[in-house]
Amino acid sequence: MAAEYLEVAFNLPLNSIFSYSLPEGEERSPEELIGCRISADFGRRKLTGWVVSAGDTLPEGVREAKPVHRVLDDQPLFSDDLLELAKWISGFYLCSLGEALSVMLPGAKREKDLPPLGLGGEEEEARKAVTLSDEQSLALETIVGSSDSYFYLYGITGSGKTEVFLRAAEDVLAKGKSVIFLVPEIALTHQMIDDISGRFETKPAVLHSHLTPSQKLKEWRRIQSGEARIVLGARSAVFAPVKDLGLIILDEEHETSYKSGSTPRYHGRQLAMKRCRIAGAKLLMGSATPSVEAWSMMEKGVFKKLVLKQRPAGGGLPEIRVIDLKQSKSLLSQELIRTMESVLQEKKQVILFLNRRGHSYYFHCKSCGYEMKCRQCSIPLTFHKNRNRMICHYCGYQSPPLTQCPDCGSMDVGYAGFGTEQVEEQVAAVFPQARLARLDTDSVRKKGVLQETISSFKRGDIDILLGTQMVAKGLNFPGVKLVGIVLADTGLSLPDFRAAERSFSLITQVAGRAGRYRNDGLVLIQTMRPDNHAVVCGSRGDLQGFYDWELEQREIMAFPPFGRLIRIVYRGKDGKKVLDALEGLTESFRNAGLPDVMGPAECPLGVISGNFRYHTLLRCSEDFTGIHRVAAQIIEGTEVPRNVYREIDIDPVQLL
Ligand code: ADP
Ligand code: ZN
Ligand code: ZN
Fold it and tell me: What angle do CA 138, 140, 143 make, to 5 degrees?
């Protein structure tokens, strides 16, 4: 008997498939509609869902199936292999099939009249092919020639990793297979993509978060048809429906933006490994500062390690000095000011880096100890002087700045802690002649500002560029002689097991911006914690030292990569209800004999947007699969009370 019904998954946290009949006038059979989107009534709502199978019977207890309103697609959006992957995601990251499909697939409403895809606009000068250095050639030969599956290109900043990536991609394309090239989702993704795109004969498909849903859909179709065999994009491009996958490249492997922040909380690296395993393709990762896990995988030989130690375009490694900011009266130390002066006199450029925007971030009363925090979150508000507001960086809550303590009325109040706005103020005061620009998410809110500032710095029309992460990533400026890290330890006080790793990586990446094309580059690192291990190793460029030490700490704690973690967060407006519910679940974990149950405890960010947050951690030093299976059963069998929300994070990258 031919199937009669469409079995549909919705983007809802429900582990069920729902049956519908065909709409009037639909000529295709249910089998032919697998992979298409439909719109249908679901309870009182009208939802978009995905046809995941065709059925010839209705589920028990269901007497008749309603027809769907419409089939939205002329051709399926996904085929068996992506459906398999979605099922795996649903099982591993503990979400519904519909939730998995919703992060994988483009979500445009209709497929008619798609607007043309405008990429970037002005043509960047395309990256030209160069003669590979010996190191690069060796790396490329190994990737192309070896039968290994996972490769890691570990090369210092400026060592020409991109060139090796592009050659490896060209080799795979020449063999008629397809390539997915992943880059982290950062402000500059767009620019990097333009830069790489120019190298390929046929136009790559591009998938990133700045595309509209219908642009995404259009690119999706170009990939499905085989017209585009190379796909460039951020995290979710790992799901691109390429034919005959030969290679996935994952640039800047250490970037946390490869991990999704919402359900399902998947990691791009993990999905890349999975897809390559299924397709028999190769995975090529790269970074100057590998994640601690990746480092350990290289040491174990699971990832084949390929090393680039030289900068083929010239440019020596910079001299790095550490400045103890505790000895300084101002946030710009005398040494930093003097060095900036002499660099500016030479008509060379300066980058100043601080990983914190706003003017100051901590308002407190010196009489009673009151601390100003967001009314909805458990974190201090940041004072934005330019806008004359106190702003919460988590929920966006704003209030006018205070001059008096709201608790005791004392006028003896003040701000502490500084952000980029305050640094800008002070730099402008010390160097009134210098041309100064600031790059952070506040300064680039207006469209085009980012691109404009970067171009003008490249041209030499700006002397000092001050900014957050935005200036740390993927930028090459020939004229930069000095990089100053205004405060290296901003991230170190976070109560998170990756705080040291992230700080180390940031210091190393920022330092890599100095002297890319010269031999007298200089990096000054100001810090309150000159003895901290991440700061010490970062300033010495001692990667081995850092990873050895960090791995030792992780081993003591049985934290990744020595153990794997499963994190369950419950949140809601009623704190007691949230905690009670999570206590119940945690009790079930314990009763089931799971070995290492930690919690429930308040999350380090205990309240966000008025939601109280508690978490329980399962630590798995061995038998992760077994623990995962038991935990999954318990979670599935446990109802969450009304107005309490559950977040499940398998292999979390942070515990805040
Ligand atoms: P990474 O990605 O490792 O930080 P890049 O790929 O940005 O390094 O390369 C740094 C610079 O070196 C770029 O300007 C690039 O064009 C140049 N480059 C790369 N390989 C070579 C080579 N073999 N010969 C000359 N220049 C090269
Ligand atoms: Zn007070
Ligand atoms: Zn807030």
Answer: 110
Q: Please write the tens of the pLDDT for every residue from 163-214.
A: 999 999 999 999 999 999 999 876 667 777 777 888 888 889 998 877 888 8
Instruction: Output the pTM of the full model.
Output: 0.90
For atom 26 of ligand 1, which residue has the closest CA?
A: 313
CA 380 to chain centre: 24
Question: Which residues lie with the beta carbon below 6 Å from any ligand 1 atom?
Answer: 130-133, 136, 155, 157-163, 312-313, 476
Instruction: Measure the CA–CA gap between 207 and 182, rounded to whole angstroms.
Output: 10
647 CA distance to ligand 3 middle (Å): 19
* DSSP-based three-state secondary structure for 383: strand
Residues ≥6 apart with Cβ < 8 Å to 328:
334, 526
Q: Domains in the chain, please, with CATH?
A: 5-104 (3.40.1440.60), 134-308 (3.40.50.300), 319-358+418-555 (3.40.50.300), 564-650 (3.30.70.600)
Q: What is the pLDDT of residue 118?
A: 37
Question: Do residues 443 and 386 touch, judged by C-beta distance below 8 A?
Answer: no
DSSP-derived letter for residue 592 is T
| Beta carbons within 10 angstroms of residue 226's beta carbon | 12
pLDDT tens-digit map of 279-322: 999 999 999 999 999 999 999 999 999 999 998 887 778 899 99
